[in-house]
Amino acid sequence: MLNYKNVITEEKSYTGLQMKEIRPVMKLIIRGKKREFLSAIGKSLNLLLPTKPNTSSKSEKLTALWLSPDEWMIHSNETSNYNNNDYETENLLNKNIYKTNLGAVTDVTDQFVLINIKGDKIFNIFETGSPFNFNDFKGKKGSIIQTILAKIDVIIHNQNQNEVNLFVRRSFSQHLFSWMNDSASRL
Amino acid sequence: MFVINCPYCGVREQSEFKAGGEAHIVRPKQPTELSDDQWAEYLFMRKNIKGVQFERWIHTHGCRKWFNMVRDTSNDEIKAVYKMGEKPPIE
Q: Do B61 and A54 touch (CB under 8 A)?
């Protein structure tokens, strides 16, 4: 996280909606197909990767999101240090997964921006710009969806009732945030 | 516009997907022995049927996986969706 320049500088608040960027949060993409890959991850991190589509799993320190049958995103639950981009989890996975040829580990900390959205109007915003039907998604805690929001690829993680984490590629984040603000002002 | 049941993610809207042309085209075993016409036939010539067609699709804005689909091009009715490498469930 050296020389990290954050794109989203403000915390926005509307009636029934609060949006802010959470940073710095470690994010890793891990890919692998073998059964040994899954068990090696489980042993190294003490966290079982979700194999059921559109779900997530959580341990004390980490959260794993299902992205595809052979792809997951792991992010830390707590924010890390600003002056450090060397992560214990990444080093551990590099040693146990990458070096043993079980799968790939990629640091995407600075590639994705994590926007935390709270409030009872979250899905009203999403419904204005996404083709996905959020009716079932709303009630399922921990579910994941990769879809399009205002023509931008996003990953949405349902945290709790009225709280979601939204991951968006960094270069799109400013535009998406301003779009959401614009949209929120009209709800 | 129609919805597609992605074999990995479930029901999603068509705008999340991209079409990848005709499915089940087998690469010739000995390309060097083919004439230019035969090679062009393999490389460029595609059926464009009004009716039931076998197609490849990719879930670009979701799981980024390729899969096959049987679609009626006249009314966009999806007859079957199946993973890559699997045999078509209908003839």
A: no
